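Supplementary Note 2. Why include the ligand at all?

Several targets in our set were suspected to adopt different conformations when bound, so apo predictions alone were not considered sufficient. For every target with a known small-molecule partner we therefore ran a joint prediction. The input for zinc ion is given below.
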Amino acid sequence: MTAVIRGWLILAAAVAIVWASGTLFHAMQEREPIYPGAGVTRIAALSDYVPSLRGTAADTPVYMLEGRQPGPTLLLFGGTHPQEVSGVLAAVIVVENVQVERGRLIVIPHSNQSGFTYTEPLEAFPHDFEIPGASGARRFRLGMRLTNPLDQWPDPDIYVHYPSKEPLIGSEARNLNRAYPGRADGRYTERLAHAVLTLARQEKVNVVLDMHEAYPEYPIINMIVAHERAFEIGTMTAVALQARGIAMNIMASPKNLHGLSHREFGDHTQAQALLSETANPGMGRFRGRTDATLIVEGKDDNYVAAAKLKRLFVPFDASGHPLSSRVARQIATIEELLNAYNDANAEAGFKLSGLPEYDAVRTKGLGAFLASAR
Ligand SMILES: [Zn+2]
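The joint prediction is reproduced in token form.
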């Protein structure tokens, strides 16, 4: 082979690699559409509260579902950790289905937009997954737990949380849920945290629910974590879910663990702050083949084996933990949290319709509650 032909072949291979990776990179940047339902009265942006965020990767839509009658306000987060997709889907379903009569819901489905723009190298994660529906599928991105290094780099050796001075491993500097209350002149993740907290203060939010997932071998799953001012309504929520056969436990927010939403919204705003966790086998170290099917169907033989060895903190059989069941659990938690808030407060509470039923989400699937897939 002549040097010229070899040169052309190498050039062609380089162009193919750049084209393939560029296409993938572009797809990860493309935000999936959300179709606001009739209950959405206004779409704001996080940069409306902190204008310096405008035009940055941190800016994200804020969906306002305002009732005709004044009442309390719930601030709902999905995508604090973009890998934890049950919270994202639950937030999207609220935006597309719920109508508020009294009070307000403020919903941020993609809280850390940056984390949706990459997946961890060498972990073989799919970049997106689809939810099937009667008339087409909806694509959602699978992101990672931390801010994309392209938006915040390099990591310090030790991340010192502001203002507590608690030291954490350096990569946690990119963790939104270790960055609260944040600061206006900090790193990307601290600025994002500051903006979300500013929103909660300005909108005089009464309750915060930050929706997460964790792997089945982690003890804090199927759990509500509550700040001490929210512990009563958190307990009432967990008891109401258990009475319906939905196993959900309650845990107190540790006072010396800083940067977490349930700690810092409780300490730095007037809101009662809670966090929910479902069990996602697509995140764990025992997981087998990691593809979009695992993310959506949540079935994995390795986890069935691990459950038999009593290594897990949730039951795990061949039916797995499908995304539809995990989203149903998040939505039932929202429902019972609103009921608990109403029961604990004398003034007129939340009144809304359109929140899907737990059993309906599990049996009909998510596609039945997503706009374009209807
Ligand atoms: Zn999380």
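The first strand starts at residue 42 and ends at 45. Residues 47 and 53 are 5 Å apart (CA to CA). Comparable summaries for the other entries are listed in the accompanying table.
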